[in-house]
Specification:
There is one protein chain. The protein is α/β, with parallel strands linked by helices. The chain has one domain: Glycosidases (TIM Barrel, Alpha-Beta Barrel). The protein is 24% helix and 15% strand. The chain contains eight helices and twelve strands. The strands form four sheets. It has a five-stranded parallel sheet with strand order 3-4-5-9-12, with helices on one face. A three-stranded antiparallel sheet has the order 6-8-7, with no helix packed on it. Helix 2 runs parallel beside helix 3 and helix 6 packs across helix 8. The longest helix is centred in the last third of the chain and has 18 residues. Keywords: Glycoprotein, Glycosidase, Hydrolase, Signal. This is Glycoside hydrolase family 31 TIM barrel domain-containing protein. Pfam families: Glyco_hydro_31_2nd.
């Protein structure tokens, strides 16, 4: 945006595709808000307890540590509704699991929180631990060596070499392969690279594959994890924090996200009345901003099923979901 000859001039750029633009020709903020809601959807009523004090830090490393915090909050009469667990609760950063040494009795831990009239939030990220080493994508198309001069920014830093990256990535023991990774790969529910082979990036677990939330089957697969009895996330007193869902990838690009030429399988129903799916392939550059919202949608729909049909009973419980990545319409889910 700039002022030129007494006028306000706007300029938009788009790397690919067509820009859908909505202009609100009014200074009435209430009217604008109503139009925004009509376009992008209404947020659900929040879980009442989520509006209270939430205790969150990086990290609580053990069950004992979390229960000590819970006891101190009670002892000092500090009103607290939620306690949060970041990535260290999981077994080798494999979400929907617990580190058995650090958190030997997660159900017992949760019961202690509930008895204190508190609830638990666990982090669940979109990357799944894998065994393959991470390779840098050194193709010209995957990198960003310059930024639009109009942004008046410096040239982007060079990427790490493949050798540097391979040395920096944790080698995963075969017995630590995540069941979620195995199933997602077998069912072809993960993101592919430009050659339509498995995309392996680097995140908290080290080498990781990424759930392809543009695939309708992947959304259903991921959402179903919240209903599995062996997961503590199936308990209605456990709520969800979707993090790193821009998506974050630690190597390959200075932007620290997925290479722009990664391939997504975009599937959608022909119509609301049809069960037939249309399937297309899109590059990540076309759909980047939608990755986080579709992860939130997957989690939200899984939590809704969990909280309405828990143990065969009909319930109407509100879920709590926090998403780090947020886009136009994300408020419908989190």
């Amino acid at each position: 945006m700039a002022r030129m000859d007494g006028r306000t001039v706007f300029e938009w750029t788009n790397e690919t595709g067509v820009i859908d633009m909505f202009l609100f020709n009014t200074e009435d903020y209430e009217c604008n808000s109503k139009v925004m809601v009509e376009l992008s959807g209404k947020p659900p009523l929040p879980l009442e307890t989520s509006l209270g004090y939430n205790q969150c830090r990086w990290n609580y490393h053990t069950q004992e540590e979390l229960l000590e915090v819970n006891a101190l909050l009670t002892e000092h009469k500090i009103p607290t509704d939620f306690l949060w667990l970041d990535i260290e609760y999981s077994d080798s950063k494999m979400y929907f699991t617990f580190d058995k040494k650090a958190f030997p009795e997660p159900e017992q831990m949760l019961n202690a929180l509930v008895e204190s009239d508190r609830q638990l939030v666990t982090i669940v990220d979109p990357h799944c631990k894998h065994t393959a080493p991470v390779k840098a994508d050194t193709s010209e198309d995957a990198q960003v060596n310059e930024i639009d001069a109009s942004n008046k920014t410096e040239e982007a830093p060079n990427n790490k070499s493949s050798e540097q990256i391979e040395k920096s990535v944790e080698e995963v023991e075969p017995e630590k392969v995540h069941y979620l990774t195995t199933e997602a790969i077998e069912k072809e529910l993960v993101v592919r690279n430009k050659d339509e082979e498995l995309f392996v990036g680097d995140c908290w677990p080290g080498a990781s594959v990424y759930i392809d939330f543009f695939n309708h089957r992947a959304q259903e697969f991921f959402g179903s994890q919240y209903l599995k009895k062996e997961h503590i996330q199936s308990n209605p007193h456990v709520h969800i924090w979707n993090d790193m869902n821009e998506p974050a990838v630690f190597v390959n690009q200075f932007e620290k996200t997925m290479p722009k030429n990664s391939i997504h399988v975009v599937s959608h129903y022909v119509s609301t009345e049809s069960s037939d799916l249309i399937v297309d392939n899109f590059e990540h550059r076309d759909v980047h901003n939608l990755y986080g919202i579709l992860m939130a949608k997957s989690s939200y729909e899984g939590l809704i099923k969990r909280d309405i049909c828990l143990n065969g009973e009909t319930r109407k419980l509100r879920s709590f979901l926090l998403s780090r990545s947020f886009y136009f319409g994300s408020q419908k889910f989190c």
